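To close the chapter, one final illustration. This time we ask the reader to focus less on the individual chains and more on the assembly as a whole: which components sit near each other, and how the overall shape emerges from the parts.
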Amino acid sequence: MTVSRAAVRVFASLLRLYPGRFREEFGPEIAEVFAESVRQAERQGALPALAVGVRELVDFPVNLIVEYWEEMRMQKLQLAQPVLRPVWWGAIGFGLAAALAGLFHTALYVPNQGALEEFAEHWRFWGEFLAYAVMGGLGGFFFALVSRQPAKAKLFWIAGSMGFLIGHLLWYPVMVGSSVALFYADATDAVFLFGLYFVWWIDIALMMSLTGLFIGGMEKNPRLAGKLFVHGVLGAAIGGILGLCFAGLWALFGLSVTGRGALIFVVNALAGIFGGALLGRAILREGSSRDAPATAG
Amino acid sequence: MTPLDDRRPEPLSEAAFYILLSLASGPRHGYAILKDVETLSRGRILFSTGTLYGALKRFLQWDWIRRVRGRGEDETGRPRKEYALTAEGRRILDAEVSRLQSLVKTARARTAPEAG
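The assembled structure is written out below.
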């Protein structure tokens, strides 16, 4: 595959991030025009082709924000079904769950915590996994109730619990391996901070994507499972990029890595919020497309 | 059709002006508009596809342009979509041209050597 064809495919994937209506109406045309632009620019050399790609990438986040903003305004104008509601509730439910799980996890490892010390000593390992399972379940339950899908409450509860628990379990070897590597690499504070950040992001990405996978699996819909898996990763990635900016500022102001609990909280919250938002959106769209009772609920 | 979103920019942005101007001579598809605007603006305005289609979406909402069936086919064999100015779009473009002419006339009158 040539670089330009790869760029066209990557660009086509990025178009999925646009609001549904815009993507459905213009997505194929945009992809076609981009492919044509790259083809024509390529005839003049690699640099003009690269310029086309860079221009798209630079404009992409702004266009994305503008289109979502327009979408929200149109929703208000049309007084239509509040399509964005499940997005917000997904964001709040799963985002809060991820943030609180991370906070509890951190609290268990803070030394000298008085009365909690003995509890933490005995329950550190199991308490950590229990916290993730409970939070994931609560996040799913909350999402189901407030997005008016009470019939799905049990499904989202179990999917959230399983997604968070298994995601966190799968992440454990990654975390142990990375921590050992960072320790023996004698990493600087900044490298250590970013390493830590990235490792924690993997945790949320795994949890959100597996939650999506379980939701689709329990619905016996492999296509939805795949879609939600991807949305979980994409949402976590968007939150992760924002978290990266935060971590950059953290490092820039020379804040100590000993305050990493706060960093973990922010990373978890951001990745969870965006992961939950995209999961909520994908679930809603799936419900709308087949007019399922879940969304009519 | 009454557009829902009536927040039309006045005066037109340069980018909007060139898109309408590009369609003044007849319907065009997305890529043709992209290249034509580049030519008309002498390379100053280079749209990304997202920016172009964001603008086209709004023009469709405002009833400035409409979709027409194109002559060629796209890669999937479907008829290529083209965009054409509506009567409203042409009125907006003409009004903008008049506004610009008036601006230039005023500026010329003030900056001409004899006005000094």
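Confidence is low (pLDDT under 50) at residues 79-84, 290-297 of chain A. Residues 46-78 of chain A form the longest helix (33 residues). With these observations in hand, you are ready for the problems at the end of the chapter.
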